[in-house]
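Lay summary. Proteins are chains of building blocks that fold into shapes, and those shapes determine what they do. In this project we predict the shape from the chain. Here is one chain we studied, written as its sequence of building blocks.
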Amino acid sequence: MTSIRASSFLRRVLLLDAVSSGAMGLAMIAFAELLADLLQLPVELVSQAGIILLPFAAFVGFVASRSEPARLAVWAIIAINIVWVVDSVVLLFTGWVAPNALGHVFVIGQAAVVLTLADFEYMGLKRSTAGVARASQPERATLGDQHPDTVRALKGMSDT
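And here is the predicted shape, written in a compact code that computers can read:
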């Protein structure tokens, strides 16, 4: 698996994504009924969206904590964010739900934030450099890495 040396910008954006997704998920679960009434969205939609956000936030946080995350993991986060944005827009314009004006502002606003995060993550990915492919580069032992008895024996063999 190809890893990257994550730029500090990418790591900060991923961390922001993880924290905001986790906070939003917890709020949507804890206040599902209140948000549903306030936004005129189905309570099941609000609570299930919150539940979905928690493992996503954990995954993004894990990737953000790596100095050399897998490139594929970062791409997956970007793709999931884009799917979230598309689903948010589709939700509003297909008539599946009928939110009030505040509900429209909420859904469009959170979609705009998620799209911005995906864009920043893409920019951070482009700023990151390729990581070292560790599996393809075998480690070479030096005399200093060997046990002292082995070093003496090897040195004795070279003296003859």
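What the prediction tells us: The chain has one domain: 4-159.
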